[in-house]
Amino acid sequence: MSSTEIEPSILATVRNRIGHLTLNRPQSLNALTLTMVRLLQQHLHAWEQDSDVVAVVLRAAGEKAFCAGGDIRMLYESQQVADGVHQVFFAEEYALDEYIHTYPKPVLALIDGLVLGGGMGLVQGASLRVITERTRMGMPEVAIGFFPDVGGSYFLSRLPGVLGDYLGVTGVQVRAADALYAGLADWCISSTQIAELDHCLNNMSWPQQPGQALRSLIATLGVNKFPGSELKAMQPAIDQHFSHPDVQSIHAALQAETTPEFQDWAEETVDVLNSRSPMAMAITLELLRRGRELSLSDCFAQELQLNLRWFAAGDLMEGVRALLIDKDKTPVWRPATLAQLEPAQVQDFFCDFAPGAARRYPGALACTISN
After folding, report:
1. Cβ 111 vs Cβ 179: under 8 Å
2. Of 8, 43, 69, 210, which is the most exposed, with the fewest CB atoms less than 10 Å away?
């Protein structure tokens, strides 16, 4: 067995009263497993109770990715053999993400490289989200016939205008300037400054307000605005088109775009929509619009209920098969086109959800770890 195979998937250390949690599967772009979720929960819970720990830093090994999401192949195989692991994973992952949103101590997410899906679930609840020029963010679930989960119905639905609807329905990724503009990140530092940041963290003193001390430190190193945001340039068109009532009318409006500065973007967006699962896009739009009116807890509860139905009745298994397993890149979506999609099919996925009915996940703090 090689040394890389026996290294723990989560590294946990305390330095200068800061708990550092490092995702440690760089060869897999730090994709999340159930063991990783449980270890993160375990350490966060222990440090919440430890008065000597004043703050937490979430980070990742490697330069390519903070976290590319959940281990989709593992979830696919779990559904195939019907062992229920995928259901446990999502319940515990959502509980962890909600816990980070409400964590009583400052959490600094240091996001270098790719952060997608499940990685976004970890960082969007952090009290201080610090990116680098190498960061690329996204909720790309619709590309594999899924919908933005891990709290996406909460944090995407609260972005300016309808940027969240656009990012969720298309699944496109954004760079550092767009992440800052949209409010998906708070500060940007250069990747070359990470060592300097660590030096400062290891040597800073702690006043009564550690959160303010961390914000002041990051403000001396980074910027909270970055030139060249494509989202800023396109927001008038995004708000116009993605405010339509359903994906079919969004698609039609994009096809009808005639404003010269928006035409190329509109054509590219139509091509993206044509490649996605019609049902996944429609479910995403409905989920995000419902999420605007729900509490954080209810957003997670709604996503969990939808998730448990989606594995059996949605397009995820077909999307993973076509794009990740067989790699034929020809998924057979159900239905195949937006024109065949009926509103009742979308509403049926949400009919059983009652806000406020479920506010605790199974095993939310049951951190029995099997390495």
Report:
1. no
2. 8
**Structure confidence at residue 10 (pLDDT):** 98
Q: Is 228 one of the annotated active-site residues of the chain?
A: no
Question: Between 84 and 246, whose confidence is greater?
Answer: 246
CA 318 to chain centroid, in Å, comes to: 21
Q: What is the CATH number of domain 3-348?
A: 3.90.226.10
Can you tell me whether residue 166 is helix, strand or coil? Answer: helix
Question: Three-state SS for 207?
Answer: coil
Distance of CA 314 to the CA centre of its chain: 20
Catalytic residue among 62, 113, 118, 314: 118
Q: b/e string for 198-211 if b means 16 or more Cβ within 10 A?
A: bebbeebeeeeebe
70 a catalytic residue: yes
Per residue in 130-139, pLDDT (tens digit) is: 999 999 999 9
Indicate if 326 belongs to the active site. no
User: What is the distance of C-alpha 47 from the center of its chain?
Assistant: 24
pTM above 0.70, yes or no: yes
Active-site residue, 93 included: no
Of the candidates 72, 82, 65, 76, the one whose C-alpha atom is nearest the C-alpha of residue 123 is: 65
User: To which residue do tokens 């999340």 refer?
Assistant: 32
Q: Delimit the domains of the chain by residue range.
A: 3-348
